[in-house]
Amino acid sequence: MIKKYIQERGSWLLLLAGIQLVILFVAYVDASIPFLPILYIVLLNVLVCTLFVFLRYQRETRFYRTIESWDEVYDLEMFREAGSPFENIVQEAVTSQTERYRKESSVNYHLLEQEKDDLLAWIHEVKTPLTAMQLMIERLPDETLQSQLMFEWLRIHHLLDQQLHQKRIPFMRNDLFIENTALEPVLNREIRALKSWCISKGIGFDVSLEVEEVLTDGKWLGFMLRQLLTNAVKYSEASDITVMSHEADGHAVLVIEDQGKGIEPKDLPRIFDKGFTSVLGRQEGAATGMGLYLTKQVAEPLLIRIEVDSAPGAGAKFILVFPKENDFVSISGT
Questions:
Q1: Phi first, then psi: what are they for 305, rounded to 5°?
Q2: pLDDT tens digits, residue range 122-170?
Q3: Could you tell me which residues come within 8 angstroms of residue 95 by beta carbon, excluding any fewer than 6 positions away?
Q4: Which end of the chain is more exposed for a tag (fewer CB within 10 A), N or C?
């Protein structure tokens, strides 16, 4: 701040220094003016000016130091330090701009909320004809056509489900209900939903649960498993997907392992990035780059750690490490 203050007041400081030099110069060239008394006066002037600048620095920079440390977008309490006409101009400008942005952000927030509510309502409305469509597809006599239509139906269903949960994730902390959740019912529900797709691809499931319960929110865990199981089925052909649980260091661990195409090493660090589609995902043509991203977004509030182990042609292993009860206690502070 001192450097900035000197730069701001540089012209005034140069003027004061110039005046003192002019006085010394006049006393030096004019023999009728005693030089030593003038030098003494100039030194006193420099001392007084230095003291004055120091005192003014503290007063004139107090307001700007407040602005420099300001980190609250809409908190204007700190701007009451203005004490000069120029500082009042700055204060009034910042206050008016902040009030305008506050009103605009409030309007935009309400518009986004309205858009979110409309989209959620639309998704729920679309689910009704989708359910009816599923029943009609199941009654088709042609099994090949039935399988093809069911696959496309499943894709639409999962895309709508992703969109629904994507809108809910920012507010999911208000919707969490952490309890001991049985893994088997959640897994069976998600596996049954993929049954027709798995049959058409010759994919089976090998489920072995040493740990039968985990501490989490069952609804959001179901969404995470839906994304991981869908990915496993998507990139597998005529093989089994292994789902097993065990305990490690006091944590429940769930492993979902497929024997599919695997993930390229260069893609591994980015698979949880929003919109990222791996080389294999582009080849499949159906990847949206949202499934794993949303899985990671849900895992964070649930305190679930996700680890990935994969190699090209060797399948992929997704490991979910669930928290202990103490982890939630430390977060809630109770």
A1: -95, 130
A2: 888 888 888 898 889 888 888 888 888 888 888 888 888 888 888 888 8
A3: 76, 79
A4: C
